[in-house]
Amino acid sequence: MTKRRCGWCGEDPLYLSYHDEEWGVPLHDDQRLFEMLVLEGMQSGLSWITILRKRNAFREAFANFDPNVVARFGQKKVTQLLNNPGIIRNRAKIEAAIANAQAALKVQKEFGSLDAFLWRIVDGKPIANRRASYKTAPARTALSEKLSKECRTHGFKFIGPTVAYAFMQAVGMVNDHEVKCFRYSELSK
Predict the structure, then answer these.
(1) Is the model more confident about 1 or about 34?
(2) Does the pTM of the predicted model rise above 0.90?
(3) Residue 1: pLDDT above 70?
(4) CA-CA distances (angstroms) from residue 113 to 33, 158, 189?
(5) Which residue numbers are catalytic?
(6) How far is CA 92 from the centre of its chain?
(7) How many CB atoms lie within 10 A of CB 184?
(8) 127: which strand partners?
(9) Which CATH superfamily is domain 12-188 in?
């Protein structure tokens, strides 16, 4: 018997693995949270499968998303990244990733961790929505608007309310698995 999954993940093995193992799982590791912020910003205007296919190249190009390293990237590194066919070669997105590393380091000092800064938007607890279909999930919410505003106030770039909501879904701040998906009940416990 096959498992019932959210309709968005289709049949691609990379998507299935991401859906089954990562999407919606509460994430509290600062380096992985930074990775997801960068990747969600890179995804803007593109499909998520494109990002997943380039994820290993992104990890290599962005020092495994260590914000301490990425924050020090200069123009020479930006030029190298713009010439890297394995990643999304968009100057604004690359420069935003560097600015976001710098912002992440600042909020770590101010709030103790990037995790504490981000998760306070949902009072540290995932919100379990009850969606019959992924198609009913909004592109943005009042909370994603709040998170976007907080991020911009603290120097983050390329994190509008829509990117913020996709990020919240990805890192488990909200559980938007369809209620009939096997992951919904697992993550709602």
Answers:
(1) 34
(2) yes
(3) no
(4) 10, 20, 25
(5) 18, 40, 48
(6) 17
(7) 21
(8) 174
(9) Hypothetical protein; domain 2 (1.10.340.30)
Residue 178 has φ and ψ, to the nearest 5°, of -60, 145
Question: Across all residues in the chain, what is the average pLDDT?
Answer: 96
Burial of 56 (0-12, 13-18, 19+ CB in 10 A): exposed
Residue 92's CB: how many other CB atoms inside 10 A? 11
Structure token pair of residue 186: 């697992």
Provide the pLDDT confidence category of residue 143 given band limits of 50, 70 and 90: very high
- For residue 99, the one-letter residue type is A
Mean pLDDT calculated for residue range 69-98: 98
